[in-house]
Structure formats: C-alpha cells, structure tokens
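Notes for week 9. Today we move from apo structures to complexes. The key idea is that a small molecule is not decoration. When we ask for a structure prediction with magnesium ion present, the ligand SMILES becomes part of the input, just like the chain. The input block below holds both the sequence and the ligand string. Read it once before you look at the output, and try to guess where the molecule might sit.
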Amino acid sequence: MTEKNVILIVDDVVVNVQVLVNLLKDNYELKIATDGSRALELAQLEPIPDLILLDIAMPGLDGYDVLAELKDIKVTQNIPVIFVTANTSIEDEERGLNLGAVDYITKPISPAIVKARVDTHLKIKLQHDALVYNASHDQLTGLYNRHVLVEEGQRTFARAKRQEEDLCAIILDIDHFKRVNDEYGHLVGDKVLIHVANVLKNNMRTEDFIARFGGEEFVLILENCDAKAAIDKAELLRKAIQNTQTEGINVTASFGICELKEGHETFESILKDADTALYKAKQSGRNKVVLFRGV
Ligand SMILES: [Mg+2]
C-alpha cells in the first residue's frame, strides 16, 4: 500500500476547515492549522506536506506572509500552495500567483473543483520530486550521484575552510571488479555494487555523505572528522566489505583518504589527493587504507 499524500489545510475559520477536511480526509493525510504561525510550523514538521491549501485573510500572519516565508525555507519552498480565499479580485489573485502560489480558488468552494485541482497539483509535484530524485541519485545503488557529490563537496569544503573545521574525503574502489564482471556477468556485477553501497550506507553516520563516483568507485565526505577518525572509519568499512558477501562472491576494496590542509583550494584538490592515496593502496597490494601524506 502506498502512503497517503499529506495536505496541510490552513484557515482561521473552523467551518471552512471542516468543509475541506470532509472533502479530502478519505484520500489524504491531513494536517490542520488555524493561523499563519502554526501553518509555518506544521509545514516544516514531518510528515512534510505535499501540498498546502492556504487561506489569505487571517489574523496575525496572513496567507501572503505565510507563502513568502514558505518560499524562504529550504524544506518548504517547493511545496505547491493553493490559495483558497474569499478575496475574489483579480489583483488579489495576481498577487497570490506572483508570490508563487500554483493555483487560486475562491470561496465558496466547489468541492469537485477543489478535488480536481488538488489532484492535478499533487500529480505535478510528485512528478517533479521524481525528476529531482532521478537527477541526483545513482539509479543502481540509490546513492547520490557524481553531480551532487561535486555540489556537496564544494559546499562542505567552503564551510570547513570558513569555520576551520576538520574535513576528510575518502575514495574507495572495489578491487579487481572487472574480474567479477568478466567471470559472473554484469548482472552479478551490479549486485556486488549494490551490496557494497549498502555496506557503506549501513556503516555511516547519517550526517556523512556518500556518493557513487562512477564505475566501482565511491566517495565519502566526512565533516568534523580528522585523519585519524577517517582512517578508523575506512578500516571499519574495509573489514565490513571483506567480511560480507553477496551472490557467494567476496570482494575487497582499496581506500584513499585525504584530510583538508592549508594548500587545498578546492574540494576537487582534496579528491585528487585522495585519489593519489587510493592509487598507492592499489599499487601496494589492495584491500588497504592509505592516507595522503603529500607528494
Ligand atoms: Mg480567513
């Protein structure tokens, strides 16, 4: 069973709320706010709404204020907002749409029209979410893809530099992966990639970032983590990969680590040094962890 989509209903008049609740309660999970501040709270609390029905005339923060704030908050800025309002003037509608509302419904509402518009905007929203997901994730393993890695790397790098915090990057590569593909075929090779990705996911802190870099290479970004802690982490992952199997196949992986130092001017330069360390790990026998210590 798929989970119900979540709709946040915002209106200061209880009767109006009740009408919408009766209309939508069977098909959606509903959250209700009777003022603007509560609406902003509920919009940011899990489950994050998939759509918001927003009244305009309310004491305190009105619907325009709420929408403007929603657009400023990262987790809420892409939630479609439909104004449901007694303001019937063209100017009001124009203002609402210009602020970024996806639709504008006037009271008294027609139940069939509300339902139809809610369905349409939810459909568009879910398609949008799927596009965003597919553009940012590796299809096979579900990890972030290289594109997100570059963005996240730059962002993390800038913050660590500014705040003088520790930062490490680990790049790991499955040893002799080509042999797996050659010997067992690509489908089994894919299963090995998924398995290694899961081992990484299961052994990471939630704040750690993992991406599939390409082929059989993965990159980890560890914030607030010094070289020693990164080595420990990589050793843990190395053993976890070595000690588990999928499809009856054991693989190992080699790890290169680089810690942010004075000389690093970009995230790419850290990654490049981590890659040099990985190369050394491969050259010196594989299934090991090497820390970059300058060239
Ligand atoms: Mg009102």
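The pocket of magnesium ion is lined by residues 11-13, 55, 57-58 (CB under 6 Å).
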